[in-house]
Each structure stands twice: as structure tokens, then as C-alpha cells.
Amino acid sequence: MAARPIVAKDYEQLDPDVRLMLQVKDDQAAAFEELVRRYQVRLVAIFQQTLGSREQAEDLAQEVFLRIYRARKTYEPRSRFSTWLFTIANNVAHNARRSRARRKEVQLAGRKSSSILAGSLSQLVEAASGLLPTRCLDRSERAELVNLAMETLNERQRMAVLLSKFEGMSYADISETMGLSVSAIKSLLSRARGNLREVLEPYINEGNLPAAMGAALQDSGENESVEI
Amino acid sequence: MTDNGDNPNNLDLMEQEELVAYLDGELDAARSAIIDRRLAEDPEYRVRLQQLQQAWDLLDELPRPRTAEDFTRSTVEVVVASANAEVDRLAAIPRWRRWLPTLMGTTLLLAAAAGGFLFSWLQVTAEDRQLLRDLPVIEKLNQYRYVPSVEFLRMLQQQDLFSLEASDES
Predict the structure, then answer these.
(1) pTM of the full predicted structure?
(2) Residue A44: CB partners within 8 Å, gap ≥ 6?
(3) Residue A227 pairs with which residues in a beta bridge?
(4) CA of B32, closest CA in chain A: separation in Å?
(5) CA-based Rg of chain B, rounded to a whole angstrom?
(6) I need a surface site. Which of A15, A167, B37, B49 has the fewest CB within 10 A?
């Protein structure tokens, strides 16, 4: 027997966030506040990872909530709430990238250039070049390493990885969110994970910094974003 | 390059897609069983899977942002302020201008309907119009053939026989 298609009532029963959104539709302010509370960190994390700037990430997260609030009166549950929200987030991120491109702002290197980071980066580079005894990277260094590995991915790959890894979305949900076919998502995630494996392989095998990444880390301490 | 997967690079990519989908729990039972068998038999394949998984697990090291304490409040305030501004903007528009799009739409619809009617009317020729006027006679032409003259019909009419027939029909 063929599976019955999922209808609005099903989403309402299955997804508590859909129920909250329906309350927002009925102008219940507390429900909206609860949705903001549930999704704000997740949204900021996605925007920060895809666009780099923390401040911009918070602004864009607010933009997403604003769009959701404006759309409340016409809201009909046709998917899980998170799928709808991240579809909006994907569009907002896409628009932000386009407007950034129009301003011709070029990020010449990684997002971070603080002196704290630069200090630890130079240590990483020294460790990689053999000036210091090889040692295990500490947590912040590992975080930076993974950050840089993520930057080797293109925007779509990065978004798909974040939705899969941190939102636990299925390929079907990611495809709906990003407006791509399921097979395209399968391919996107495969390539992304292959790239991550390739970049992180030296660290995985030996527990220290990949040499090629040392140069990138060094550069990220020296360069800043430039307006042209 | 062929599309049928004969190219070694394509094979490699397809193999990786299957492996990643396996790790993501996106394969059906039959395809998962194939991967399971290969993992049991092929140590290199196992290493590849482990590396993919370890690289994936390293993403847990990415710092998760902590939003400011008042982020929720400020977001709600921004949204409410924006919604209020929208209400104010709508209120500032005179009532007649708010209805203007509806009015224009209705007018256009009526004009289109009138135009359509006029157009179809113009398509009907004078001959057709005459036929339409004569339709009641044409419909009863067979009966009229048995009437000897117009005077006889007038006589029937004077005796109110037509109205009786009409009431019988109704």
C-alpha cells in the first residue's frame, strides 16, 4: 500500500515548533519569543559559519525572525518548521553574499585576525615546520583548524554540511531547504566530506597540523578584509 | 568522460557518495548490506570510512556561538518595532488609496467583461440576428403548416387559446 502523503495536520501533530508557529499566527507573542529562543543560536551559528562575521550573523538571524513574523498570517505548515526556517535563512544568506559581492568587499583571508589568534597560529606554524616538538593541538587550535578546513568548502557545500551535521537534517529536508534535488545534495555532501577528510587527514593520522594549512593559518594572522 | 561510471574518478566519486550516504543513514537496507559486506572484507575501505567519520566528528570542535543574554529580547523588540512601523505606514495611507488597487482591479475586470460581450455581439451577423428574432416561429413551424390562414390564428388568439396552451405547458 502506498504511503499516505503528509498533510498540514500531521506536521502540527509531529512538530512542536509548528504548533508554536500556529500560535504566532494567532498573535501570541510568547510563542514567538519561544521560537526565537529555540533557534537564535542555531541561526547565528549557520550565518557565522557561512558568512564569517559574528555581527552580521546576528543581524541576519534577526532578519530571518522578522520575515517569519511578517509571514505569520499566511503560514500553513507544509514541512517541519525548521525546514521552513532554514529555507528562509538560506535565502537570506544568499542575498547577503550577493549584496556583499556588489559592494566589492573582498575577504583576502580567513575571518579572524585578532592578536590572540595570531599568537596561537604562529605556534601552530612553528609546530608544523618542526621548530617546536610535535604536540597535540589544544581545543582552540583544533577549532581553528576545523574552521579553516570548512573554508576550503564552497558556500553550498558548507551550508549542506552545517544543516546535516548540526541540524541533523535528512537529505530530503536539506534538498527542500536549499532548493536542490536529493541526488544533488548527496553529491554535495559527499564531495564536502571528501574535501574535509583530505584537508584534515594529516591531523587525523598524526595528530598535528597539516603543513599546507600552516601557511594558511599564518596568512590569516596577517591579512585583513579590504574594501576596494 | 563517460556518464556510466567507467571512469576511475567517477567510480571513486560514486563509491564515496555511497559511503557517505551509508554514514548518514540514507541508504536502504539492501545497499547498506552491500557496504557492510565490503567493510568486512576490505581493510582499505574500512580506513576510508573511518577517516570520513573522524573528519566529520572533528566538526564538533567548531565553536558554537553564545548569543548575548538580551538577544531574544532585542530580536522581539526589533520585530515588534518593524511590525508597528508597517502598521503606521499603512495607517498613513489615505483610506481611498488603500482601496485603489482593489478598485482598479474591479474596474479592469468589468471593462474586460464588457469588451468581451461587445466583441462577441459584433461577431453575430445581421442574418443571425434575424434568425434569433424568428426563433419562436421557427420552433413551431411544423404546427403552423397545418393552419389554413393567419386569420384563423388570430381567431384562436382572440379566444385566448394560446394562453391556455402556455399555462398547460407550464
Answers:
(1) 0.66
(2) A54, A57, A58, A61, B65, B67
(3) A105
(4) 15
(5) 42
(6) B37
Q: What is the identity of the amino acid at B16?
A: Q
Query: Given CB atoms, is A159 within the 8 Å cutoff of chain B?
Result: no
Q: Which residues contact A19 (CB under 8 A, 6 or more apart)?
A: A12
CA distance A221 to A111: 9
Q: Which helix (H) or strand (E) holds B149?
A: none
* Chain B interface includes A171 (CB < 8 A): yes
Taking the Cβ of residue A126 and every Cβ of chain B, the question of whether any pair is shorter than 8 Å is answered with no
Q: What is the pLDDT of residue B89?
A: 79
Highest average pLDDT, of A34-43, B140-149, B158-167, comes from: A34-43
CA distances (Å), A166 to each of A159, A160, A192, A195, in order?
Answer: 10, 10, 15, 18
CA distance A169 to A35: 18
A41 closest CB neighbour out of B26, B62, B67: B67
Closest CA in chain A for residue B48? A197
HSE of A52, CA atoms in CB hemisphere, 13 A:
18
A142-to-A114, A151, A188 alpha-carbon distances in Å: 17, 14, 24
Helices (H), A71-181: 81-102, 115-129, 139-151, 155-167, 171-178
The average confidence (pLDDT) of chain B is: 82
The answer to whether residue B157 neighbours chain A at the CB level (below 8 Å) is no
